[in-house]
Amino acid sequence: MPYLTSSQTEWLKWLALITMVIDHVGIVFQQIDPIFLVFRGIGRFSYLAFGFIIALNLSRDNVNLSAYLQWMFITALLSEFCFKAFQPNYDRLNVLFQFFAVVGVIWVYQHRYTFHYLLQGMLYAIFLFISYHADYSLCGLLYCVTCYFFFQLKPGRYKSLTMIGCVLMGFFVNHRMLEDLWGTVLWSFIVLSITFTLFYLFYPQGIRRSAIKIRRMKKIVFYAFYPLHLLIIMTIKHFFIG
């Protein structure tokens, strides 16, 4: 039996998309009112959920990794123009490049017996370089890769240890925000948000208890959502902030 049903995966995908929008609204409007930092706290759900979903998809037997890589790279490349307009002073690549690196690392790992070790080393270096310069940096990559091995392992001690690793990496992914807000009330809110997210993803009474029936989202809609929502938020920002 799969870890999540198709409907549960789609439900989690929608939650991740919605919280991503909330997070990005918070990025834009926190300069007007610090209360929008609460939106950033809610948005902690998004990356952890997306990384979880991607790791789950990569662990499936019928996944087409080459197509996955192509879709992710093309969308990341096209989205970069919107991302730079959205955050012109941010010096990292958009998050889709991070997910592209994740897929690339798993792709190399799955071909470890067919690729020469020198080629493996070169490919790993390329994907690690991209990850380092993308949003969430290497912590984001390690979280997704740890989730991948969590899905690969059978129930037992090692799977439990891997789950603990996923939880720890979930906090490391957000270490910069936690450091910036240390000593404030919002720090506690961020910790609660991350804790709830990880509980919802990994605890048996979380997402796996969901009985909502949702049809699968079309691939083009899912990939187009990221750049389009950035354009919409930037348009709203233009009218309210200028």
UniProtKB/TrEMBL annotation:
InterPro entries: TraX. Keywords: Membrane, Transmembrane, Transmembrane helix. Signal peptide: none annotated. Pfam families: TraX (PF05857). The chain crosses the membrane at residues 12-29, 36-56, 68-86, 93-110, 122-151, 158-175, 181-203, 223-241. The keyword Transmembrane helix applies. It comes from the Bacteria. The keyword Transmembrane helix applies. This is TraX protein. The lineage of its organism: Bacteria, Pseudomonadati, Pseudomonadota, Gammaproteobacteria, Pasteurellales.
